[in-house]
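call fold target=GAF domain-containing protein
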Amino acid sequence: MDGLRILGAHGGRSKGGIATTCLQVSKHIVIDAGNILEALGEEALHVDHIFFTHSHLDHLIDGAFIVDNFFAKRTKPLRFYGLQKTLDAIKEHLFNGEIWPDFSSLKLLKVDLPAVEFVPIVPNVAYEIDGYILTPILANHTVPCCGYEVTKEGSGIFFTGDTADHEGLWEYLNKALHVKAFIVDVSFPSNLGGVAQLSKHFSPHALAQGFRRLKRANLLCYVYHLKPAYAQEISQELERLSCVTAILKGGEVLKYASGALIPKEEVTDKIRILNSIGAALSAQNQIESLLEMIVAQAKKITHADGGTLYLLQEEALHFKVVQTDSLGIRMGGLGEPIAWSSLPLYQEDGTPNTTMVAVTCALRGEPISIPDVYEAEGFNFEGTKRFDANTGYRSRSMLVLPLRNHENEIIGVLQLLNKNQEKEEGVFSAEDADIGLSLASQAAVALTNTMLIGDLEALLEGFLKSIIYTIKMKSPYTAGHIERMVEMTMMFAKKVHQDEKTFPSKAYDHQGLKQLHFAALMHDIGKLATPEYVLDKQTKLEGIFDRIALVEERLKALELRCEIAYLKGEISLSEREIKVQECMQILGLLKGANLGMECVSSHQMEAIWRLAREPFVIAGVPYKILSEDEAKHLSVQRGTLTQEERDIINDHASITLDILTKLPFPKKYKEVPQISANHHEKISGKGYPQGLKGDEISFEARMLAIADIFEALTAADRPYKKANSLSSAMRILYFMAKDNELDKELVKFFYTSGLYLEYAKTHLPPHLIDEVEVDFETL
């Protein structure tokens, strides 16, 4: 729905569709309850929020019946919003256990929740639901009353509620420039102005007087709440007022963006039903309701008596909803599950099961119309005939429609039965097939979004967010790496998509980009299994704590031992000074080596191992400065990790692959595991975890590899290493491509497209952005 739908617009009930106040804001929201059930029918089940203007019966009557009608089907409370005194009056005089049951104290059958919840509202406070904002504005009536400003995407319509003239109304309208139209109450003709004033309603004369205070010329004015007995007289008066745009009679729609009116004649049943199917895209958590609605609306739009909805699962059509109005049959959906056997697409010998009309429709992907199933040839209707024999029903005409999702795949079949005999002699027409296919298409999209996008993608994205959050709690540096690497990967993909020379056949639609986004997000998911002390190891001796502190304490103890030996006369003053100086030099060497910022020279490595193998002697007593394990860690030439620790970190790729291959990715994201897990593979075949080489590594995994390495080289937030300059990082990429570790064409494109510089300007400090002198054309 793209506008405010008028379900009821009169100040009383009468014949000819004259119904009391009710406005539908969206599929789930209405203002007042004067005509919900008659106007919406089965769609009324989806109303979850009713905003009341006041407590008079003509504005709340269906609030009682909607709860009663759908009590067994509802899965969430129906919320009643209103001023506190309005809700108090409703509870005291209607839902009081005497006039009507107190549904706020009764639990729904399907969930342990009350059937009704009362929600007090406060004037001038905005309430947002599903993207719609409703703001109550006080009115001037005989009981506490408010109107509602309804806005969507910045534009709105104001509904005054029942009201007499008051200064606040015009002050509000003069200030609320985003309001494009307002609906105002005119209940009595001007010759009954005294009655209007006493009952606090507008008359045409009073409205004209009020308009003198309106300072806006671009505001549309719609009148509602005409009392049926005076409707003709009021209409004649209002026609003479240039300020009134139109008189609402019910069935119209006012567009939120412009306030323009779509007449009732244009808001046909078929358009409304198709729009309601489109609106079902948002009902991701009510799949059963959606299935029922599809069948019910399809029957309504084609004037069919019965309908069956099948979904295609594991090469068989499974019954999901069965409805037959004349027999009162309601199966599946929110009701009892259907125990009927599914219809296999293929016989046991592998041949298509074309004897079943629904299966044939699914296999062919085309609508099938049958004037009379008893005279049809080529299909087996024994099940239909048995149903007729058991129920006394007579199945005749049938229209069978395929449901195609947005990927043009058949996901189910909609079968309609027995066209109304008063409509074209009971035979479904070509128009029925066309409109039915349109509905089936929207239904399939709604189903796909609800079941696939709504469930799998929401689960997947939620899972990813929780994983990234967990990684962030464990290793902020890794989380930062993932965020930047994802950003660079998406920049890379978009550059490739825009390129028409180097990679003309490579293009990424929304789905392809999303798959790549997921893959980049999950590329380091295996690091969840990597110990923290290895993952973010800042120094070579870091474990549970940095063991350099122990080494430092040993050396301080040795200095103290030298002092004691000197005082005891065991060593001379010069020997003491030499030994203390030697301790300080050793500590400087070990502290420097521990940081891992610089490459350890062979001379330094020899000195480190000598400290582990040769004792430090004071007055003839040997002392050990380093253990062999400490020497092993300190003698790591580059970085802070030993080979064993590097192997532990490298295991994250195989763990990533193991995790992702166990996840049930939808078909369109089936490449995520291999893209994520293969970003450490090398073109030469010397990478990991699988040792893939050449074309065995996907194009996308090769992109991830470059993004992963470049981010790691230029990251400035790692405490255990310095960030490389831009020229240094690009030189390393160049030689990795030269050595057949990275894809040469992609590395060259990374440079020639300017992507490297674009990223650097955003993420590198200015002093690291220097001139790149490597000639990438030589790759």
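return ok
The first strand starts at residue 3 and ends at 8. The chain has 25 helices and 24 strands.
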